[in-house]
Design goal:
The chain has 214 residues and is mainly alpha-helical. It has one domain. 77% of the residues lie in helices and 0% in strands. The mean pLDDT is 90.
């Protein structure tokens, strides 16, 4: 479980779409406040998904090869295959010109509620669902699994945490660095999406297939 969650959390945190939106929020009026709301909403979404799974499983791992366990592994497998297909489709469209989303022009006047909603909308829900199908194996009676789940949520939020801290502690330096990062993300957005989709998809497909076979 731990390795799967590291892969999923890493793929989530490096996603270019939410990182670009977060940089735009930080550069807007009251940017630090909007960024904090976005970050907390993002983290709350992840925690809520994990909490719902834990409620359903009772905080105990599913019995190996039981119907619920097999369904969870099959769901991870389906998500992995879907990510591979999606990544392959986007790869065939390269080079694809960057088009800023329609809301980017209005983000300077975004409210705190809008910032919170953006965090929900920009979650990579396929990866979040893969994470949910993975944490069914968590055992809340052990400290190790508590730490694993906490680490997963923090890892999936790590890029936002770093940018928020940099903006609060050194706003001038952060502004220039984040502007350069946003330019790089926009330039490489499609390739990043393809790479993350294929890598995460291949890992989920391979690990899920192995679990079903053993």
């Amino acid at each position: 479980m731990a390795v799967d969650l590291v892969v999923i959390g890493t793929a989530i945190t490096f996603g270019p779409l939410h990182n670009s939106a977060f940089i735009l929020l930080l550069a807007s009026r009251r940017g630090a406040r909007k960024g904090l709301v976005f970050l907390l909403s993002w983290l709350a979404d992840l925690v809520a998904v994990v909490a719902c799974v834990m409620v359903l499983t009772g905080g105990k791992p599913l019995v190996h090869h039981s119907t619920p366990s097999t369904a969870a592994v099959a769901a991870r497998l389906a998500i992995g295959v879907g990510l591979i297909v999606f990544g392959g489709h986007r790869y065939r469209q390269l080079p694809r010109p960057y088009r800023p989303p329609h809301w980017a022009a209005r983000i300077d006047n975004a409210s705190l509620g809008t910032a919170a909603a953006l965090a929900w909308l920009l979650q990579p829900w396929a990866l979040v669902a893969a994470g949910a199908a993975t944490v069914v194996d968590a055992d809340l009676s052990t400290l190790t699994d508590w730490l694993t789940l906490t680490g997963y949520c923090l890892l999936a939020t790590l890029s936002l945490l770093i940018m928020q801290l940099c903006t609060v502690l050194a706003p001038e330096a952060a502004r220039n660095r984040l502007r350069a990062l946003r330019t790089w993300l926009e330039t490489h957005q499609e390739r990043l999406i393809v790479a993350l989709s294929l890598l995460a998809g291949l890992w989920l497909t391979g690990s899920s297939s192995y679990t079903l076979a053993t």
